[in-house]
Amino acid sequence: MTKMTVTLRVWRQAGPSARGRFVEYAAEGVSPDMSFLEMLDVINEGLIRKGEDPIAFDSDCREGICGTCGFLVDGVAHGPDRGTTVCQLYMRRFTDGATITVEPWRARAFPVIKDLVVDRSAFDRIIQAGGYISVNVGAAPDAHAIPVPKSVADNAMDAAQCIGCGACVAACKNASAALFVAAKITHLNLLPHGEPEQHKRVVAMVDQADTAGFGSCSNEGECEAVCPKEIKLSTIARMNRQYARACWFDR
Amino acid sequence: MKLESRIPGGPLADKWDRHKFESKLVAPANRRKFTVIVVGTGLAGASASASLGELGYRVLTFCIHDSPRRAHSIAAQGGINAAKNYRNDGDSVYRLFYDTIKGGDYRSREANVYRLAQVSVNIIDQCVAQGVPFAREYGGLLDNRSFGGAQVSRTFYARGQTGQQLLLGAYQSMMRQVEAGSVTLFPNREMLDLVVIADRARGIVVRDLVTGRLESYAADAVLLCTGGYGTAFYLSTNAVNTNVTAAWRCHKRGAVFANPCFTQIHPTCIPVSGEHQSKLTLMSESLRNDGRVWVPKDPSDTRPPQQIPEGDRDYYLERRYPSFGNLVPRDVASRAAKGVCDEGRGVGETGLAVYLDFTDAIERLGANVIRQRYGNLFDMYQKITDENPYRVPMRIYPAVHYTMGGLWVDYNLMSTIPGLHVLGEANFSDHGANRLGASALMQGLADGYFVIPYTLPNYLAAAPVPAVTTDHEAFTEAEHAVQARIDRVLAVRGSKTPREFHRELGRLLWDDVGMTRNAESLSRALTTIPQLHEQFWQDVRVPGKPNNLNKNLEYAGRVADYLEFAEVMARDALERRESCGGHFREEFQTADGEAVRNDERFAHVAAWEFTGVGRAPLRHVEPLVFEFVKPTQRSYK
Amino acid sequence: MPMRPMKFLSSSVGTKVLIAVTGLAFFLFLILHLAGNLLIFVGPEAFNSYSHKLVSNPLLLVAEAGLAAIFLLHVVKAVVNFTANRHARPVGYAMKRWARHTSRKSLASTTMIVSGTIIFGFLILHLITFKFGTYYEDPTHHYRDLHRLVLEKFSHPGLVGFYVLCMTIIGLHLRHGLASAFQSLGIEHPQYNRLIRLGGVVLALLIAAGFAAIPIWVYFVGTR
Ligand SMILES: Cc1cc2nc3c(=O)[nH]c(=O)nc-3n(C[C@H](O)[C@H](O)[C@H](O)COP(=O)(O)OP(=O)(O)OC[C@H]3O[C@@H](n4cnc5c(N)ncnc54)[C@H](O)[C@@H]3O)c2cc1C
Ligand code: HEM
Ligand code: FES
């Protein structure tokens, strides 16, 4: 199997308030079957042996579902492939000798913690504000009590797939969390079980996103294009609609 | 030490109801006065936090991730079982109970498993009400599939992302309690010690993974929901931060560890592609519903799979197990795959793979139906391997997947340290020697939503304990011990990275304590593991400082714990001189290679007591009594 | 929950709804405006009498005030929104690329604030040039001979070029703006989304071409 060599330009920043800069690293003997993160692992092993501080980046499942990983690869969140996280990006996607720029998510609401690791707790606070259905354990009726048309369940599932990685925010020129918020609103508001709280939910979540310092949506759709789960921009239209309805007509 | 399982008396079907009635309650007004620490936010931890928060307890919830939603449960693909019998195909609570006991090769407690089957139906109700978008049929009702060898369709699923949807449901319910003020969340915290005061679990010491600061928290009870230890093998289907650390530190404080050798190897994973590999990706078991497993009959056959005619293929599962075919339980399927590869009939570059072929299913049902059922799994496969599974059969190989062993708990989910309860994959659980597909999610949620809300109050109400604060000397002592260990690992400044040690440990365990083991390999492991352990403390290189985000420091701590833990794993496997479930001792098999149990001597739970690092642990035994099911030789022929 | 219109208007979603509503309203005005202006192709008579009728309608003042309010609201909200969005990312990227795939990012979408600002400047100049420009009186009808002014102004190639450029920029603004407004208002349907986007581009093109046709025609044909 052929091996490749790539040069990485990686954003290094020692801490939240430290000044960062780009540092170049050569990665040699890279197998095309390596994932991007495995390539970083190899670089880090080398750095440790040399007594240098390895590149901090976050990951866990390494199969595109936990939403832990994420940074910009050559200016695109999660890299060039459609519907993938950076842990699912393989080196065969790059050409031998390429220079690859690696940068953390950047947004006021996502401050950098170290190198490529950012603080995404703002997302948790948005869910906390209303991203749930209020049902206490034990209070649920039989699962078949409320039938849900298959198409509704499927659409809810499409939106529910969001992994909360933050790529939408990173890709958006306004650092807007609209796609993240809209995905959850769409998931829960579509289902009959989520209907009673639909207005309260959309208002609380949108307002929380505003408070956290995310921008607004300019409908460019960069978020949709980088979303590992390909959540649709139409969820944002739905959110806008429901937010307006909730603010003006719900008492 | 006497292991008291505290199984309630009476008929099997009444035990749980009776126990609930006999359990003491905490009055609503008093609940606020009790602080409960929950470590972990997987299905078990998130559901426990949510339900205890709803009841009104003061809950402090910790996890190592930056968000509780990222717990490893998120990765579960296939589905969750429940004895709803929506299919009218003969399912019942009793059948789910029976299948689970049998699937576990008669190494689990009847009463626990029965309770699990009982509450399984409530779990589905709860999840649907929370908005979990399970797959539905055109009539609007829930769809079910048969999973992992079950002969009834009792598995509920949300595409290939069931774990994700269930976890998000639990996480959202928990976040609702955070908003309500009953749950306080501590993400980015790693539990590094348990604080025991007057023989009771009274708190924990955690490291803030962002600032590096050590923090102590006191409570009236601690719930450990920290998942399994599959990453002891380095390569596994588990998320890379999975660890035994929290459980192991509790073990060192006195909680006995049960059946550590019971590890599940999943038959359908994407094979290893090279040394750089950092984790293995599971291809959901559900694929075996429509895929057919085969290898070439002739070891020297190197033709591409499509060119190998039917007659030259060996559908070895269908051949050996005519009634279950491709759907035999995981342990059986895994060993069979290893068997054919050992015969030199494995496929792919490494020869460590078998084909999982969908050609027939696509012909029968059409590519669209297959896409609907498994689309995201096929995409995932293609992303990783660069091969199109609609056209070329998948290549799969077994990989470490789940750990049935864990901290020993009684019927109340309480460990041998009063106050320390263990939920989810972290306990030795209800799965015996082998877990059935779609049963871990069920167990995690059962523990958190429907068991602990009854058994914890019983503990809290029964034994009022004096209030403690983190000023207590036990906290100071624990913090010092944790700090000393951190300083020590940083001070080694050797030449090998934590990953190198981990990889080496993994290889060692896979070879000698893996899918099949024997007395010789296990004895060898018992000398090589301590050697590696010693080397670790002499030659590990951990870069950076302790006072900020330092992934390698975290990692080194986890590897160090694995190095201590691995020894017990090997020891447990050596002492259990029988084959059962995921534990296959080569010395104990039939002529045609099936596992041979020894019910006379080993129908028990083996639980290990810590006696000091480098000292042999003590083996305790909890006999398993089968009142309702008669252990038989499992047969899937 | 009580109605909360004020909160709505200051929220990120409400802000965008306002920008969309005012933008679309102004777009509708532009269509009417264009329809009127096209009378210039009919002849001086038609053009002047139409504009006279407009000016002599007492309601015009109200309409003008409304239009100004709509326009100013659009501008103020757009600028506030722009600065808030800038604020949301204090440190920019060293390298940022178009994400391809389904992205709708375009030259138009990335330059809304620029095109908007140019339109703003243009509008002031436009009002100075025509509304508040030289008052010629039509000797026969004794009303304003706007036609003459238009002919006079568009005999300068520089001004013609400037107008064509500005119309292109308005077209650019609307090329993203029209479809975007529908999305902001939550009007979308899987079956019509492509139609909406296509319609937006076509209408933007028509507006730009229609308005640009006047100075060009005047310069090449009308003054002869
Ligand atoms: C790829 C894959 C697919 C699977 N598919 C299925 C399936 O289809 N059906 C099924 O039933 N089961 C499946 N399983 C098994 C199932 O997902 C797990 O057994 C189950 O989710 C475990 O849940 P848990 O809550 O016990 O632990 P986890 O979800 O592992 O959560 C552990 C939690 O503990 C925290 N934690 C860990 N260590 C520490 C520490 N030291 N300090 C503080 N916090 C800590 C983590 O942050 C995390 O929040 C699958 C497993 C895998 C790997
Ligand atoms: C000819 C007059 C104008 C018309 C018809 C018009 C129309 C529109 C429309 C329809 C939109 C889309 C709204 C949405 O995305 O929801 C829009 C957006 C915008 N307009 Fe205008 N506009 C005009 C003038 C201006 C002016 C003078 C400015 C001054 C700054 C401006 C700035 C903007 C900006 C910045 C946006 C983008 C908002 C965003 O980022 O989402 N526009 N306009
Ligand atoms: S590491 Fe889980 S999504 Fe990439």
Question: How would you sum up this structure, described in words?
Answer:
The complex is a heterotrimer of chains A (251), B (637) and C (224). The model of chain A has no long low-confidence stretch (mean pLDDT 96). The longest helix of chain A is centred in the last third of the chain and has 16 residues, at 234-249. By secondary structure, chain A is α+β, with helices and mostly antiparallel strands. Chain A contains 8 helices and 7 strands, in the order ββαβββββααααααα. Chain B has 637 residues and is of the alpha+beta class. In chain B, the strands form 5 sheets. In chain B, strands 5-2-1-9-17 form a 5-stranded parallel beta sheet. Chain B has a 5-stranded antiparallel beta sheet with strand order 11-15-14-12-13. In chain B, strands 16-10-18-19 form a 4-stranded antiparallel beta sheet. The radius of gyration of chain B is 24 Å and the shape is globular. In chain C, 30% of the residues are buried. Chain C is globular and about 60 Å long. Helices cover 73% and strands 0% of the residues of chain C. Chain C has 9 helices and no strands. The longest helix of chain C has 30 residues, at 193-222. Chains in contact: A-B, A-C. At the A-B interface, helix 1, helix 2 and helix 3 of A face helix 3, helix 5, helix 6, helix 11 and helix 12 of B. Bound molecules: flavin-adenine dinucleotide, protoporphyrin IX containing FE and FE2/S2 (inorganic) cluster (FES).
User: What oligomeric arrangement do these chains adopt?
Assistant: heterotrimer
Largest sheet composition of chain A:
5 strands, mixed
- Total helices of chain C: the number is 9
User: Architecture of the largest domain in chain A in CATH?
Assistant: Orthogonal Bundle
Q: How many E strands of chain C? A: 0
